[in-house]
Amino acid sequence: MSENLFWADEIAHQVIQTHPKLTVATGITPSGEIHIGNLREVLTADAVVRALRSKGKDVEFIYIGDTFDPLRRVYPFLDPAVYAAHVGKPLSEIPGPKGDGKSYAEHFLEPFLASLREMEVDVNVQRADRMYKEGRYNRNILLALEHKDRIREILKKETGKETQDDWSPFHALCKACGKITESKVHSFDAANEEVEYSCACGDRRKIPIAGGGKLTWRVDWPARWQILGVTVEPFGKDHASRGGSYDTGIRIAREVFSYEPPFPVVYEWISLRGAGDMSSSKGNVLSVHEMIDVVPAEVLKYFVIKAKPNKSVVFDPALPMVTLLDEFDDPASTARNHRAVELAKVSTSAAVGVPFRHVVTLMQTTRGNLDEMEKVLVRTGYEGVDRKALEKRVVFAKKWLDRFGPDDMKVEVQETFPAVARDLAEKQRQALGYIAERLEDGMSAQKIHELVYEAKDRFAIQPQELFLAIYRSILGKDKGPRAGFFLASLDAPFVRERFKEAAGLSS
Predict the structure, then answer these.
(1) Is residue 507's pLDDT more than 60?
(2) C-beta separation of 407 from 479 below 8 A
(3) 392 near 370, Cβ under 8 Å?
(4) What residues are paired with 184 via a beta bridge?
(5) DSSP character at residue 409
(6) What's the whole-number mean pLDDT along residues 125-135?
(7) What's the CA gap between 382 and 204, in Å, rounded?
(8) E strands in 268-380
(9) Which pLDDT score is estimated for 439?
(10) Would you give the distance in Å from CA 117 to the centre of its chain?
(11) What does the DSSP assignment read for 100-138?
């Protein structure tokens, strides 16, 4: 890709040259919580769509929920007593975990679609089960059944694996047991659009093709391209491997469905810090709807799309998320990634202009009082802050701190002198006394920072020892927020009195 273009713009440029009609598609199987890793699929597509539209192109953006896929096994987050009997049944046809009347597929799909709306990812949602039941796959199913032997040859050539003689590209949905994984198709009637199957449960009958089953994945995918007119689609590196489903899909699309395959956008995985690649089936996830409640939508989008799709990235919702949020807010920091910021923006985006760390600290020291926060911000050099933007950011700060915040960012000012501060070393007490004598009302965070280091030098004390004394005296623990802004966020008379007490200069 050109170094002069953002990756989404480069893809848009290539696609425009080769495809007169533009339909971008993406899809996910709702087998469990749809997670941050899944976002790479959808947001990669969204970035390309936005890049194409910024060039004045008319683009259809389709999201396919693979709701007709079977439940493969009883996942760790499921009750075996309930779901063992449902293994092999389509996700759209089994009950959701909450027993609220929603299907398993909708239970996981609906929160994700709500999160997409919050991120202003505008998609035309298609559900696979409805597409099959409405007969939209019928023509392709019949073509696949008619060209079964050709498909078998393609699969053998591309994957090196043989298929059994009774293999069928179509899995029938058994009317008796409700499973889609246990049947064998014996014949089909193209004129009446029916198949005859037998199932491991003993059932045998003829059923209509519409809603009577689904194509195996390697055939379903290229069929879907043709049905929906897909011209661009992102997909994971597993599908792009040699002999993978994209390789077989190319040939099946051309040789069976007479359709030119879409432009591929291959992406790497997003892994979770300390836990590896995210997986819904393993329960190793941070769900999108959970994160959208903790982090602004535009920041989550920015995280996903700022790196090229072929670069693996690690998601860490703790301190790195603080850095990312501040980076997105600061135009100087995002100069190199300005296009990613543009493509990630949502209409409700509003930069606060105050580092997120400071908001987290203020939210605690002022107990969420916005009037007090604004007073502190003014005296610490942050004037003209948008109150509504600050209020929204405070909500995120509280949720982030509760869910992911490290202990040293959690602040609870002790009302009485902490016992842990009674055994400070002589130099620590002297340094705190020095700071207390020189701390002025309304002193800026930078001036307080300089005062702390002045005390450190005067009494030849290590910085960590002085910070420990500060935090023990006020918080009763060894670590805390950045000292300059933290002390500036507190009433100066309180800080002076507390440091004097620590220094033994007052009762």
Answers:
(1) no
(2) yes
(3) no
(4) 198
(5) G
(6) 98
(7) 74
(8) 270-272, 276-277, 313-315
(9) 96
(10) 14
(11) SS-BHHHHHHHHHHHHHHHTT---EEEEHHHHHHTTTTH
291 alpha carbon, distance to own chain's centre: 7
- Scan for tokens 């047991």, then name that residue: 177
Amino acid at 221: W
Distance CA 14, CA 263 (A): 9
Q: Phi and psi (nearest 5°) for 259?
A: -135, 140
* Alpha carbons 129 and 143: distance in angstroms, whole number: 19
Angle at 271 between CA 265 and CA 274, to 5 degrees: 170
What is the mean pLDDT of the segment spanning 253-280?
85
**Residues 52, 122, 137: CA angle, nearest 5 degrees:** 90
Distance separating alpha carbons of residues 14 and 34, to the nearest angstrom: 30
Tell me the average pLDDT of the chain: 93
CA–CA separation, 286 vs 274, rounded Å?
13
Dihedral angle over CA of 364, 369, 374, 379, nearest 10: -50
Amino acid at 419: A
Supply φ then ψ for residue 125, to 5 degrees. -80, 125
- Region 379-403: what's the mean pLDDT? 92
Kindly report the backbone phi and psi dihedral angles of residue 182, in degrees, each rounded to the nearest multiple of 5, phi listed first.
-110, 5
The three-point CA angle 349-353-357 to 5° equals: 105
Q: Which residues contact 62 (CB under 8 A, 6 or more apart)?
A: 23, 24, 25, 26, 123, 124, 126, 228, 230
Whose CA is closest to 500, among 439, 451, 433? 433
On the question of pLDDT at 330 being above 90, the answer is no
Please give the helix or strand (H or E) that residue 205 lies within, else none.
strand 204-208
DSSP 430: H
Through-space distance between the first and last CA atoms of the chain, rounded to whole angstroms: 69
What is the predicted pLDDT for the residue at 348?
Answer: 82
Kindly give the residue spans of alpha helices, DSSP state H, lying in 405-440: 426-438
Do the Cβ atoms of 263 and 255 come closer than 8 Å?
A: no
User: CA 471 to CA 473: how far, in whole Å?
Assistant: 5
The SS3 of residue 421 is helix
96 confidence band (pLDDT: 50, 70, 90): very high
Whole-number Cα distances in Å, 244 to 154, 217, 249: 12, 11, 9
